[in-house]
Amino acid sequence: MPKRGNQKRKLLVLARFLLKHSDEEHPVTLGQLQEELERWDAPAERKSIYDDMEQLRQLGLDVQARRGAGGGWFVGQREFELAELKLLVDAVQSSRFLTQRKSNALIRKLESLASEHQARQLQRQVYVDRRIKTMNESIFYNVDRLHGAIAANRVITFRYFEVNMAKERVYRREGSLYRVTPYGLIWDNENYYLAGWDHIREDVRHYRVDKMEGIQLTPERGRERGGWDPEGYTRRHFGMYAGRPCQLRLCCEASLAGVFLDRFGQDIMLVPQDEDHFTVTLELVVSPPFWGWLFGLGEQVEVLSPAWAVEEFKDRMARVAAVYERAKNHG
């Protein structure tokens, strides 16, 4: 058969067809491959296709053959296993910082890494308790821009906002620009945070990435990180809230050992007091979310020191009790 000018595209056409339409459960036949080549004006004889399959194997594509009824060629091992793709799709679908639109776009791209038959197994909804997708599309690109600034060690500028009851943006510092040397990105409680040196406040602070607007890299070289430790910073800032730093000493019932090790890491020291209790000293930033977490443990935990922390915890509990006392008196 005389060769046509489109013969050079044969291997690419065959590779794309195999990747999209075949897997171990769905081999493609010689006739299907010939039909696809005809569609691209690159017809091939039977022996030629066998040679092409061998060339694709040599180029690294795991083309396998199955003989007999229902047999044919298929792609065996791929860059990502189906189980890995399912895990990635679940992570994208459940991620709160991605908008629904961006989640759908990423999932479609992940589906393209599997055969069309396997892709149907990836089209599933993951239930996440109280999942709320962000409405801020720019966060996806903010994260990429911040990674670039961290790698280049450049000062960035941005505006920072909160949202009021009318769901309107209210800018911090009256809308003036923040100047920050970015140290690292932190993933905590389904949110992205940037930690870095605030050149105006002259301190290490952190910011919700989805609340940062107009991020710009400047030519100014950033401040050196020194011994800044992202893991230690995250552990000290409960729920990434600001507060008063201290070494908090607690007395806890023995049954809470796993709770504290899970939350604060395996390196903390649990000092046995008796068969039923241990003490632990935590270096952290005391904030309202931490007190709320501690309150949830009830009478199983007692704050021992420092004295100001003991009084603050007692005062918070008293104020909550007063709210219900007033409600009862007015009821």
Task: Report on the architecture of this protein.
This protein is an alpha+beta fold and 331 residues long. Helix content is 39%, strand content 26%. It has helices at residues 10-21, 30-39, 46-58, 82-94, 100-111, 116-122, 139-152, 230-236, 257-264, 288-296, 307-330, and strands at 63-66, 72-75, 154-163, 169-171, 178-188, 191-198, 203-208, 212-221, 244-253, 271-274, 277-286, 301-305. Helix 1 (10-21) packs across helix 3 and helix 4 runs antiparallel to helix 5. The longest helix is centred in the C-terminal third of the chain and has 24 residues, at 307-330. The radius of gyration is 29 Å and the shape is elongated.
Distance between the termini: 96 Å
- Tertiary shape: elongated
Oligomer: single chain
Structural class: alpha+beta
Number of strands: 12
Low-pLDDT residue intervals, each spanning 5 or more residues: none
Percent of sequence in beta strands:
25-35%
Please report the number of helical segments: 11
What is the radius of gyration? 29 Å
Major sheet summary line: 6 strands, antiparallel
Return the average pLDDT rounded to an integer. Answer: 88
Order of helices and strands: HHHEEHHHHEEEEEEHEHEEHEH
Q: Which percent range fits the helix content?
A: 25-40%
Outline of the structure:
With 331 residues, the protein is an alpha+beta fold. 39% of the residues lie in helices and 26% in strands.
Helix-strand blueprint:
Blueprint: H1 10-21, H2 30-39, H3 46-58, E1 63-66, E2 72-75, H4 82-94, H5 100-111, H6 116-122, H7 139-152, E3 154-163, E4 169-171, E5 178-188, E6 191-198, E7 203-208, E8 212-221, H8 230-236, E9 244-253, H9 257-264, E10 271-274, E11 277-286, H10 288-296, E12 301-305, H11 307-330
Antiparallel strand pairs: 1-2, 3-4, 3-5, 3-8, 5-6, 6-7, 9-11, 9-12, 10-11
